[in-house]
Each structure stands twice: as structure tokens, then as C-alpha cells.
Amino acid sequence: MDDNIEPDNDNIDGLMKDLEEDIVECPIIFQRMVDNSKKPLYPNGSKFSLLLAVLKLFTLKAGNGWSDKSFTSLLELLCQMLPEGNELPSTTYECKKLLCPLSTSYQKIHACVKDCILYTKKYSELKECPKCGESRYKMVDNGNGGKKKGSPVKTLWYLPIIPKFKRFFSNKKDAEYMLWHQKGRNKDGRLRHVADSPQWRTIDRTFPEFGSEPRNLRLGLCTDGINPFGTLSTQHSCWPVMLIIYNIPPWLTTKCKYIMLTLLILGPKQPGNDIDVYLAPLIEDLKLLWNDGVEVFDASTSSRFQMHAMLYCTINDFPAYGNLSGYRLKTDKGCPVCGDDTESDWLEHNGKFSYRGGRHFLPENHQYRKKKKHLYVRHSIDVMHVEKNVFNSLIGTLLNMPNKTKDGVKARNDMAARGRIELKPIEKGKRIYIPPSCTTLSKKEKMIVCESLKGVKVPHGYSSNISHLVAIKDSKLVGMKSHDCHVMRTQLLPVAIRSVLPKHVRQVITKLCLFFDAINSKDIHPDTLDDLQADVVVTLCELEMYFPISFFDIMVHLVIHLVREIKLCGPVFQRNMWAMERDMGTYKRRMKNRCHPEGSIVEATIACETIQFCVDYMADVQPIGVPISRHEGRLLGKAYGPKSNITSFEGYDINGFCFYTSRQDEKSTMQNSGVTLLASSEEYVGKGKDPVDITRAYYGKIEDIWELEYVTFSVPLFRCKWVDCDKGVTVDDMGFILVNFNVVGHIHEPFILASQVKQLFYIEDPLDKRSSVVRYGKRRILGVDGVVDEQEYDQLDELPPISVMRRSVQDLRDESYLRQDHDEGLWFDKLK
Fold first, then answer.
1. CA-CA distance, 354 to 371, in Å (whole number)?
2. DSSP H helical segments within 6-157, as ranges?
3. Whole-structure pTM over 0.70, yes or no?
């Protein structure tokens, strides 16, 4: 190797060593790769080898989504800048050709245009489908008035999974991650990882040979349709099928690097229930991994072992759930968990199913109880889509948003037919008036809710700008994504409705919101799940008393099964589609050829996976698919001193949070100045003579950020405005913490070490403008710099547990289904 080449190329030697097994059948190609890894980029003074230079340039291309055309232009310019005799390729094609041995392969499998078969194995030589008779190829004009065979009518792209698994284990760092579920997991009985679940342990007991080898893989499968052209239109729908590895730490499970694209089903039409035809190549490899296994080299132990794998669960939205499971979801027995035990009412007027079976899951002696049914959990339910759809139905009904409300003339006729005569629509001339039910907001109340949401400021990275989602003029929410619905549902909506609606309705909505917040926690004690299940059953029964029957579609019904699935399968955050939806957006951005969208997505994905494999062998290169946080190195308040003077800041990154001063908050669309501290002190309680230790939370806002300088280190301090703990902090009957910043305390003790505080934010209480409701911020990163703190599992601090309002039957009879405080009902034209 040339003496002028940096020691960084020693890593390329490691890459060649790990790659040798993959291309041992092609010694000429391997030797060419070795030569390129040693060949200097240009003579007399090059610091890079040819292979290393191309890898680093291609890393920039893949990481920033450059097109082939722009990358070729860059290469041409660099070739002109470098000294004469340089070896740098001048086109993207030449770079890909040089890196070709490093990339994994893919298969193009022809398919029937009607999704009947794949042209493989016994069908590989056929030119027509044996089931429907359709041609395998497009027939094009040959120029002489006849027809000739063209391109295949439909193609499946398959990216084999076994070579990818081998590459994971050939990398020492990734191979060590595969053992994290056994060696790195905190085994204290709490649910933080899918390995903590009974389902994981059941597999180990049922298949002891499989469970005895911790490196055997547990996989999750996800699929959904996307429009590769980046629009919301459904005119073109291709279907990526992805696998998730559950052996690794939870903060890596959802990273792009560890989510593998395995299949891409060609559009423009979705496969529907015929998706099992396209899954055949993947299923064959999974069967091979389960039955026979594959010999794999483990770089972490420098040994070989027989690797097996199994499909642990599937994660899909509801339509794809039905396609994969084969369950008929659009029937009167549409719940895949309850099956034939689902209680449903066919609504004669609006032709929809209503699932109002909450009473079936109550104790036998409960006042809402009718009769008992049994639960059977069969598949994993995607909480993200359930939460999004339930929130859209709820907020659409409350704000009477067009096309989203579940209230209307037909819904009221259904309710009147079931005994709620006071809600019956009234014909007045050419229009129909429906009286205000207990869930109907007046114009003033709608304005209060919208203004409350419009004024919310959240910490950096917490969510999108909430104010952009609120249309005050029309009293509705617009442009909400799945994560926006999650934040609204779990954190903001309970505050926004505090001063509207009758108390009993407001309480039941708040309890449902707190339930979703609780199940999304990243640290759950199993003993709390039974109480959580009991509470949500009661909550759904109370919702049935107030909301229209059409509100209770299948998505609302599925809420009742979520806790049981947490018991069986582990925390929700590893089994929902947040990460997969994000990756689907990445696939859309990789589409550069509009004539062949699926092909360009696959080619770009292969290129990114190749670079991901090589990045660990290159120094000073940021990995693709595992983003580096802005907080890296500052989780524990590490400072970069010493400095000569005391320095003040308007913003500071520490503890995984981004903090601002109150002055900076006023100029920003975010709120980053809220802090809290849990501290102990000795105080006298009652008439006791001896002080006792009391732990309490302190709430404040940052006014100044200082950094004190010492000889060898510096210490950041926050000067805060604290609320008086005794007079300015209260807790309401729903468990919400309210603070009043007009009641200031601890004036003589304003300073706090920055490393000791957590971030929160405050929302003005619509019920009392002098008070603010406390909402907790979240830490955005976990496991940075290889440091894993078990306390970091829970990024979002939990709210107080749901407070179940036990009411007697007489109380329920006294409640009215009509609003008594206003008469602003809804008007409809008869024609509509």
C-alpha cells in the first residue's frame, strides 16, 4: 500500500476481509476490489485510495439524496480539479460499477397482471397465466403491422434477506447489538422491550432449541401502500414490505438502518387479498431460516453459528391488516380479535356498522354489564392508526367538521329509535334542526378550543407547529399528520376542553386521552395493566352514553384490545408504524425516474444499504440511517471549557433537551424555558415536633443561563422564576397539575444546576387564565455515545394515572343527553 495513504485505509482492509466470503466465488472481482482499495486516487501525494474516495463521495450522494445527474456533474468537476493521472470515475455509472461487488443483489420476478401467480419455479417458462390466460408480456407493434413481445406486464422486486442478515453479523458492532436483548436489557420485570413480554418467553419455552441461541432473530413485518410520486392520490399504489429486527436495543429498532426493505410490489393497483402471492419469495426464505437455518460468521465472537429466524409479529394499518391476516374486516363481525363474539348493530339509515360491545368486558356485577364474552388476541394492532382515526372522529364530532363529524340527521334518527327521543331531528320548513346533544359545542366553545390550541407553544422537536394546524375562522383543524394527532390526543386536547362541555362528558374524553398517553409509555409496570384495562372499558361504556352510535366504528372498538396486546407482546412503541411510515416517505424521496418509480426506489435503496455497510469501515463519516443528535456528548451536562470569562446564553443544549430563556421563548414559535426539579427537604408536617423528609416537584421558567468557569471545567447554571410550591401549585380532580406564576416563591434560591432539571411546557388553562397546565417534554435520543441509561427508556414522562369517576345508576339517570346551557343545535338542508 502507498505510504502516502492515510491509516484510515486500514479500515478498508477490514472491509475487504469481511467481504471476501461474499464474493469468494469470483476471485477476479475480489482481486480487483483489493487492488482498488490500495490504489492511490492520484500519484505523488494522495491521502485516499480509489475505493475509499468513491465510497466517501457516494456516502454524500446517498445521505443527501442527490440525483445521478447532479452526482455525475460533481464527479466531472472533481476530475478536472484533481491532478493529472487521477483515477476518479467521471460518471455515476462508473462509480456504481466499481462498487458493484459491495452491493447486495435483488431479483426481478415477473407476475400475472391479475395477481394470480409469480412466474417462478414450475411457472418460470410460461408465457401466459395458467389461471386467467393473460399474457406475461406486453405486446408491442413490431413495425410491420404485427406484434412482438415487450416488457413484462408486472414485476415484483425482491431483495433477499439472508445476505443482509449475514452482513449484519459480519460487522462486529451490529453483531453485538443482536445480543442486546439478553445481555444489555434490564430484567426487573417492567415492560421496556418486546423481550420483556410473555410472548417472547412463550416462544423460548415452546421452541427451546430456538430460544437457547440468543442470536436467533425475531422479526416484525410491515406493509402499506404508498404513492411514489409524493401525492395523496391513490391512482398509483406500490407496496413496500419491510422487516424489523427485535433483537437489538429499542432506540435502534426504529432507525432506518435496521428496517429492511424486502419486497416492492409494483403498482399502480394495490394487491389486496392477493398479497400472499407476492409474499411467496420472502416466506420461502423465512421457512428456510426457521427449519434449516443458515451458517453465519459472527464478527463479535469470531466464530460461526447456525442462525435461525422467525416472524414475531406483523404491524399494519387496518386495511393491510385484513389483507395479510385473511380476516374479513368489513362485516358485522369485523373485529379480528373478538371474531364471532363481536356485538354490532347494523345502522339501517346510514348503512354502517357500529361496534358498541364495551359492556362485554366489564365484571359480571358491574352496573353497565349485560352479558359476558371472551377475548382472543390473534394479531398485533397498529396503535398509531387506531389513535389517529379515533382522534379524527372525536375532534370532527366535537367541532362539527364537515366529512369528519359522526353527528347528523341519520345519526340522530338512530339515537331516537333507541330511546333518546329528545335528540330527534325536527323539520322546520325546508331545513332540519337537530337539538344540541351533550357533545355539541356552541360557537363560543369552538372558538375557545381553537384559540387554546392556537396559542400552544411546545419544546423544540416535540411536534410540528401546532398553530399552523388550527383554522380559527372555520373552527377546525387542518393538515394533521399521524404524530400531530398523537400529540393532540395525549397532551393538548385534555387541556383545550377544560372549560367547555358538561363536566361528565369532559371527564370521559379526558380519561380516553390519558389512556392513550399511558399505553404509549416506554416503561410500563405489568401490575398497572389490569387497572388500565378496567378503566378503559368503563370509559368506552360511558362514551356510548353520550356520543352518536356511528361514532363507534371498528377503530374505536379496537381500543378495548390494546392493553391485552401490551401484556402479550410488549410496549407499543416497538409495534406501531411510526418508523415504517417515516421510511415510506424516504422511499418516495428516492424516486428519481417517474417512468420507472419502483425500479428507481429499489436501486437507490440498494445504494444506501451498500454505503451503510461500508460506513463503519471509514473514519469520520456519519452513518446513514442512524442520525446523530445535536445533543450528542451533552446528555450529562459535559462542558467544553475552560473559558476566560463568565458566559451567558439565550439557549443551551443539555440532558437531551434544548433549553431557552423566557426572553427567547417570546421571540420563538416554541416554548423551551419550562423546567422542573424533583427535590427532597426536611419540613414540619402538622403538629409534629420532628421534621420529616418530603420529596416534591418544583416548577419554574428559565430567566438566565450562565456558565461558571473553573480552572479545568465549567458548570452551567439556570436562574429560574419558581412557583411557590405551597400556594401556587394545585392538582385538580383529573390529576392535572396547575401552576400560577403570579404566586412566586423561592426568591432567594433562584439558581439550579442545569444538569439536574427536566424540561416541560405550560399551556394556559382555559378554565382559569391565571393558571397554566403542566405538560411534560420528551428526550429525543437514547443510547448516545454507547451510553445506555435505563432511565432513558421513557422519553415522555407519564401523566398521573387515570382517575375513574365512579357514579351510581341514579347519577346516570339524572344526566341529560341535551345541552342545558345553550340551544345552538345543527341545521341541515333537507336535500342533503
1. 18
2. 9-19, 27-38, 50-64, 68-81, 92-99
3. yes
